[in-house]
């Protein structure tokens, strides 16, 4: 069978790690598989290159930044191939461009348009292990080197797995898989052996760092089974895949709890209580190129006015505030307030569909922990609550317990430095 | 006019140096030129990458080593482009492959077959400064990334200058040009304002490190004027070009003195004094893939036997000795002696053609310095002498003085770390 394996930066941080990964790859090949490996840059290489760029130019051109950064994966790919060759096996490294990763031309955040893995196919036919530099491709239009945005090596891996019709795609990092909650917050969190694409999407979209959002989308669309596991152990990890079987009453209603500290809340107060005012506010934000997450329109607080709150990435906070202040006179609201001391806890599980009262359980659990819920949003399989950032960990623990997800004892040992 | 500029590793060793080089490039463009820049890897990057490779594999595959090492120039090229963009000008960096440097597939020591500078041409047409990663290309047959061998960025620069029909090619390093002798040995050495390709070839082939031999060959064949100068000063440097004009009596007979410490001498003693014996010895060495430099067949030392000495690169010493020992019985010589404590001093100048007695002057000067000449070889414009390595510096000074090349005072200030 064809297997695609992706190793993150912490898995190839130094020569010793690279050799260890090489052995693991060879084991997979020895089991009769054709192996294609996507590798990230070693440890902190990307950050070091970014620092170097910063010394030369305060804001380097994205095209040149891509040219610089892609050198990181190029080096780790070549070194990993050397390590495999040194074990008496044949490996060949390819840049994203050589591997046929065709992308849009948006430097720093390009999207994969197509994969033409001709060179990979022939290398596999010759019995080689194929090592592909992750996180990079080549622009279809300009033929320039592009990067897919940080963390996108996962996406490259899944896209290659689909293009190569691989049996599955293994994503190696320094954690044992996907957990019912972040084990750093909930020591009793348990590994999720299997999770559906849609549940993983909700987890990733709501703060679970383990898999890149676009990677999960791609895997789900292409139906590529993804095996998330640690390169520092032989533990089974988590399978992200289509789960066809009927769910039984034994199945947990809730699969996992995700949390996110990266959002901020903006509240627009004294909004004139007229038709279209809210629309103008969100048009203003949208035209600033900002995606918002949750929205709450409060009941009228003062005579004839209302307040509107919404959440957005903290990184867009300044831009949004500036845009709104500019529009203040036109729209005619009183003031705008920024608050980045919030956190989001999300309860995710397909079991919600068949079980009523899940939201009631979630709200009660948080309330009984003495935590005030500032905002709420739900999807068919998710309930998200915004709370004060200081109380986020408690909220996560409260719902994890309330839905009976606590296992006994330490769930996971972290190795390495994360991805 | 089109100008190609090449900057060595010491010229782009850190962010500050890269910014300084960027200004120099912009100045050249501001003078109304189209500028194409070839850049080496920053400072010791290549050595650091080699160390990294060594940690992973004692002898890495050349293909993978090329993939690894070329990342060095890729980084410096991108950083230099950023620095130029930061000054408000537009620059675009290209890998050797993107620049159309087509090579043979011999990894680590590929030769340029062709240059297809389509992307460079269009970038120049758009008014961009073009930055090309030196020392690398792409194999015509395998499409793999190749390197041209260390120091070959000079060759890339001249080859690009020829392909782009540039007016001239500037090779920037940390020395002020080509000198009548190595200023570290002869403080009174003077800068050579102009030198012919053939003289520069002899200088380079006999130890002058300033220009890569293949680069000079290429420049001479293509008739590309090469301007050798320092990136740490605005001094005029040395022009390597066709010198058509009649030489006058005022012209110095000798242009420069080169020296070389990288050779060793092998002496085969007790060679049977029969026809073909010498031939068998040199066939043996040649079949071991070793190029030899100078040969001396001594007069018969013992009854019916003779001794043959030749010089070769020290790096080939072990290989040659092993091959000869194996052939000892067959050829029937008594013994073979290895000596790497030799040095070669070469007197170079086209003036020799028209002036008799140059060799006499050279031999006398060395002899009067009390130095024994072990071997001699000459070309139409060169006289080389092998002396004891401890006496090499004295020999260089002696001939430099004998041919009236001494100027008064310090000739050059070395900056940076050399190439």
TrEMBL record, chains A, B:
Gene Ontology MF: a single term: aspartate kinase activity
InterPro entries to which the protein is assigned, alphabetical: AceGlu_kinase-like_sf, ACT-like_dom_sf, ACT_Aspartokinase, ACT_dom, AKii-LysC-BS, Asp/Glu/Uridylate_kinase, Asp_kin_monofn, Asp_kinase
Instruction: Give start and end of each ACT domain.
Output: 266-344, 347-415
Binding of ATP occurs at 6-9, 184
CDD domains for this protein:
AAK_AKii-LysC-BS, ACT_AKii-LysC-BS-like_1, ACT_AKii-LysC-BS-like_2
Q: Which GO terms describe its biological process?
A: diaminopimelate biosynthetic process; homoserine biosynthetic process; lysine biosynthetic process via diaminopimelate; threonine biosynthetic process
Recorded catalytic reaction(s): these are: L-aspartate + ATP = 4-phospho-L-aspartate + ADP
- What GO cellular component term, any one, is given? cytosol
Sorted alphabetically, the keyword list is: Amino-acid biosynthesis, ATP-binding, Diaminopimelate biosynthesis, Kinase, Lysine biosynthesis, Nucleotide-binding, Transferase
Q: Where does substrate bind?
A: 46, 73
Q: In which pathway does it act?
A: Amino-acid biosynthesis; L-methionine biosynthesis via de novo pathway; L-homoserine from L-aspartate: step 1/3; Amino-acid biosynthesis; L-threonine biosynthesis; L-threonine from L-aspartate: step 1/5; Amino-acid biosynthesis; L-lysine biosynthesis via DAP pathway; (S)-tetrahydrodipicolinate from L-aspartate: step 1/4
Q: Which domain of life is it from?
A: Bacteria
Give its E.C. classification number: 2.7.2.4
- Entry's family note: Belongs to the aspartokinase family.
Role, per record? Catalyzes the phosphorylation of the beta-carboxyl group of aspartic acid with ATP to yield 4-phospho-L-aspartate, which is involved in the branched biosynthetic pathway leading to the biosynthesis of amino acids lysine, threonine, isoleucine and methionine.
- Name this protein carries in UniProt: Aspartokinase
